Amino acid sequence: MHYQITDGVDLNVFPTKQFKNVNITVDFITPINCNNFGLRTMLAEMMETSNADFPNPSLLSKKLSSMYGAIFGTNVLKYGNQHVLRIILSVVNEKYLPSYKSVLHAGIKFLHSVIFNPQIVANRCFNQDIFKRQQNNMISYLNSLNDDKQFYSTMQLRKIYYTNEKNHRGFLLGTPNQIQTVNSEELYHYYLNTINQNNIKINVLGDVDAEEILNQFKQFHFKPRRTNSGEIVFHPKLNHHIQNRSQILNINQGKLSIGYHLPVYLNDKYYYAALMFNALFGGTPQSKLFLNIREKHSLAYYADSIYNALTGTLLVESGIDAKNEKRVIKLIDQQLLDIQRGNFSDKMIRNAKADLINEKISSLDDPKYLLEQYAILSNIGKIPNIDRWCNQINRITKFDIMKIAQSLNLKATFFLGKED
Amino acid sequence: MKRYDYRDLGDTVFSETLSNGLKILVIPKLGFHKTYANLTVNYGSIDNQFYLDGNLITMPKGIAHFLEHKMFDKKDYDAFDLFSKYGTDANAFTDYTQTSYLFSTTNHIKENLNILLNFVQKPYFNKDKVQKEKGIIGQEIKMYNDDPNSKLYTDTVMNMYQDTPLNSDIAGTINSIEKITVDDLYLAHRIFYKPSNMVLTISGNVNPTDVIKTVKLNQSEKQFSNQVINRYYHSGDLIVHKSKSEMNISMPKVAIGIKGTDQIPTGSESIKYEIAISMFFEIMFSENSTEYLNLYNDGIIDDSFTFEFDNERGFHFGILIGNTIHINEFIKRISKLLLSNQTILNRKIDDFKLIKREELGRHIFMMNYPEVIANQMGNKIDHFTNLYDEFNIINNMNLSDVQKAVNQFIDPDNLSVKIIEPKK
């Protein structure tokens, strides 16, 4: 059920008895802008840590415990060209509790505190002590992400893949430096802008009364707004020439990251063919990459491909011995060539179809995935029903998959090697 | 077939033990689309030594994990091949004390169950394929060795259990797996992969009668060795109290391990003990506590701080982990809190009540996921105390139960510290 609370603020309620909890997401959406990476990350961090009603992490956490272990958090995400600040709240369905408590009502009230009652000093800035501490914590967190060497390798790939796209080149949460330059007055202004100017989408999934949910969110008195959210599908300007980089570190295993442009986007005519291509190339344990790099040549524990239909990218990742770098890259090229030339069996196609369909139907049991889908698909106006989705997959032919493989464009390679 | 209704929680557990000893537990989930099955063998990385006809057999470290990898690979096909006909997602993992084989599907449950039972129960190994697997697992070992959080955890466990098989990574080492032979794999399979040493749990869109019928028929066609499993138990007296190493990381990492040397009861009391200790960690070290807040505000811990309690066959330990630049303060202050647990707990009745609420709610959350339900069905030692029983145990828990368990568990001589510092 869809409601417009006010201009630019939408509520979707999905009633279902399948789950024993109620899941809520509140998304603040604005076009992506790399100058705001540090601000949006810090705002999400401040909202998650405390607010005027629950002024320290311990009091906030106790409130969540008192609501029978409600799950709460904030997240910064990117969908195509949309920069999303998401608040997540999940509470148990009251009917399973030993003594009836109105957890859902309390949960929505709590969300009001998170959104409208931050710890602001004199209408001017966020509480400085808390701000400073969370800023330091965020900087340590961002630094520690590079401890994951595959993540690091793929971030380096990003820099050379998106040379011309400053909003996509860097990591979404910003650099430690970007976090460092945020100050608490500036963040307060950014906060006001976010809650009053961003588009807002609220999604609720669970055994609830839609009208009641609507009435509770009406009490938030959101201001009307007329802004754009940014495009959910982003067509990047990419380099003509292939970019290659490498780096040496003192590690056990080398990490390879390869970026291709796959010029097919969400809901394009060939979208389902692109999903099938990815499943065959590196998306499953039956894929060419898995069967050859791992099973046949015993060169890796993992060799996967990931397709992002919002940006038209296909990413390949593998952890290998540094001495095998050239050999593995050649094998990956060979697998792609094989698919381009139709060198794969009908059985592989059938299995890939069964795999995608099984995964899709299974996702109907995952509240988190469902809400994510609603968030993305409400942008393009429709949520295809499951039968239609499966039919589209079943219609894909060998020729379709070959065409997709032929349209793939290698754009960048990064290799993190090992000291001798 | 026995039936256990958990009416207030809206679910039912069906249970059956076949004549060959295989235990089957089925938890139907109304309105769900997928079905998840988990076949667990009570055999893990610590079981590399056992008695056979009175002789102590010692197998290369990492054999259980190696066996798990090789079970999928048959003479002229791969088990993944068979599953993928139905689009079924299959996987497996090996732990210190168990090996689990799983699938998740939305169709052809009967066929998928037969594939699962057959590939796990009918071994086929050959020399070339075994040799080839060494390259793949070698890369898996290297991957984990580059992962600082995984390294910190396993190193802490190794330090606590120096003179037991827990002193090695679950996957073994590049050198130990090199020694694994086809004969080793057949022997390990014959001894440990028998139905009486396995449990099959299934949850999701299933009919319990159909499932049990399918499994019964499948098992009636198979013969198994009747060799009794005779495990070798290590005393595990040695402990390394402190060790340090370096890695390519941004900030120092510290772990404090608490090795349990007390005797744990069996049956549901064992789960009660486990939950009591877990609640102690929550009361003391979750974001709720003022102790946590002080450490957080003083910059001793940050959001990376985490803890867990593991209670498995033959051993139990707690572990607290965090990134910190104040290594000594971290160790000093957390150890002090651990050792003054009784005094602190005495004034924590309100916190206890809140944590109890939270645990009840979290258990209801878990009941939304067939894979979580099927993985939380208990084992022989705890008499199959499941997720729903846990809910009732928590509901009846008192602060004094927590105090009693902690008093028994924490011994100042059993703390072990591991530090990983950034490479200079």
Automatic annotation (TrEMBL), chain A:
Top-level taxonomic group: Bacteria
InterPro entries to which the protein is assigned, alphabetical: Metalloenz_LuxS/M16, MPP/UQCRC_Complex, Peptidase_M16_C
TM helices/strands, residue ranges: none
Start and end residues of each Peptidase M16 C-terminal domain: 182-354
Alphabetical list of SUPFAM superfamilies matching this protein: LuxS/MPP-like metallohydrolase (SSF63411)
One example GO MF annotation: metal ion binding
NCBIfam families in the cross-refs: YfmF_fam (NF047422)
Name of the protein in its database record: Peptidase M16
Organism: Philodulcilactobacillus myokoensis
TrEMBL record, chain B:
InterPro entries (alphabetical): Metalloenz_LuxS/M16, MPP/UQCRC_Complex, Pept_M16_N, Peptidase_M16_C
SUPFAM superfamilies: LuxS/MPP-like metallohydrolase
Superkingdom of origin: Bacteria
Residue ranges constituting the Peptidase M16 C-terminal domain according to the UniProt record: 179-335
Gene3D superfamilies recorded: Metalloenzyme, LuxS/M16 peptidase-like
Domain Peptidase M16 N-terminal: 61-173
One MF term in the entry's GO annotations: metal ion binding
Protein's name according to its UniProt entry: Peptidase M16
Species of provenance: Philodulcilactobacillus myokoensis
